Amino acid sequence: MNALRRLRDGARRLGPGLITGAADDDPSGIATYSQAGAQFGYSMLWSVVFTLPLMAAIQIVSARIGYVTGQGLAANIKSSFSRPVLLAVVGLLLAANTLNIAADIAAMAEALRLVLGGSAHVYALTFGLASLAMQVFLPYRATVRWLKWLTLALLAYVAVLFTLHLDWSRVLERTLDPHLPLTRDMLLTVVAVLGTTISPYLFFWQASQEVEDRGPVVHGPAEVRHHLRRIKWDTNIGMAFSNLIAFFVMLTTAATLHQAGVTQIETSAQAALALRPLAGDQAFLLFALGIIGTGMLAVPVLAGSAAYAVAESAGWHGSLDLQLARGEGRGFYAVIAAATLGGVALCFTPADPVKELFWSAVINGVVAVPVMVVMMLLATRASVMGANVIGKPLRRLGWAATAVMALAVLALLAASLTGGGG
């Protein structure tokens, strides 16, 4: 009973970090990991292991800033930098998130069409409206409970592995010793994995969720230390879960598609369809349902992070606890609606979802680096964080993540200038 109680108490401590980590494995991310496994087999498995400490560190930094300052990232940028810098960052974030929402909703709709038949356009509209309704009409606590349950959708990708027969000793060997072919395509794939794993919308979302959870109450030093430990626990668990699922997705497509000579996957739905003749109907169904579940988790996070950023920039009160029926949060919910319905609208255009993913990755990368620099500067300033500035180990990892991401962005931009965007 004591062990069960400790497990239950531990689960209750999970929140913003778990949801943020799970939302990182959205259909767009699934497509990236699927392509990495299909194209390079086991040789790319190392990448999700490499990114884990960097991703966890920078997310802990964003969460600590939100909790300690009681303000989201956009509000902190607003107080520390010029208005043009703020508007550029928030504008690019809104554009990237809308493109990402479009790609995610299109992937969900196509996955459901593959399972049930029917019209992908009808499904896209349904998913968009359902996501919007959840954010507008459910109070914050209820929304968080739904998002926590939706993280279980990622277990579909664990279940897929049980339909396969794997040589785990070879998997471990190739993860630790990948035999990397140092080609342009490999570089682009590494950059894509980094851009998918470390995305600015995750920074804005988790910082704002810590503000929501914190509330207006002023906490004493002991309580602050307790919450900072909770943030570390929650975020490390969430990011480990996220990267474990990414590892399983990459491993699944490496063991099936790559082995069968299928090396080009452009969308997550295409990955699910390609699995069917190789791994059977069960693997196909689990993969497709995982796309739908992760999309329903990711779209509210994408739209919500944009709304928090815009609201803080404009000086509005932004919270998922605001009640539109009482006239509260009109601007905040208008941004959520604009991002979500804008993504749905793109599903009805001839826009190429592959190019949407590429350009959202470019914009995300451009936004991520300056935001990471700002976060690290804020987190190390006593004038901002008081006695809760980050320590040396977290500082080193945070700056390492920033440097790696900067190099990735430079490589991605160079690739786009030479035709890497397709």
General description of the model:
This protein is an all-alpha fold. The chain has 19 helices and no strands. The chain has helices spanning 2-13, 16-24, 27-40, 45-69, 73-80, 83-116, 120-137, 140-150, 155-161, 168-176, 184-197, 200-214, 221-258, 268-279, 281-314, 330-346, 353-379, 382-385, 392-417. The longest helix is centred in the middle third of the chain and has 38 residues, at 221-258. The radius of gyration is 20 Å and the shape is globular.
Overview in brief:
With 422 residues, the protein is mainly α. 79% of the residues lie in helices and 0% in strands. The protein has helices spanning 2-13, 16-24, 27-40, 45-69, 73-80, 83-116, 120-137, 140-150, 155-161, 168-176, 184-197, 200-214, 221-258, 268-279, 281-314, 330-346, 353-379, 382-385, 392-417.
Calculate the mean pLDDT score and round it.
84
Instruction: State which percent range the strand residues make up.
Output: under 5%
Number of helices: 19
Say how many strands there are. Answer: 0
Contiguous runs where pLDDT drops below 50 for at least 5 residues: none
First and last CA, distance: 57 Å
Q: What class, by secondary structure content?
A: mainly alpha
For the report, how would you describe the main beta sheet?
A: none
Strand/helix succession? HHHHHHHHHHHHHHHHHHH
Instruction: Tell me roughly what share of residues is in helical segments.
Output: over 70%
- The outline comes out as globular
Radius of gyration: 20 Å
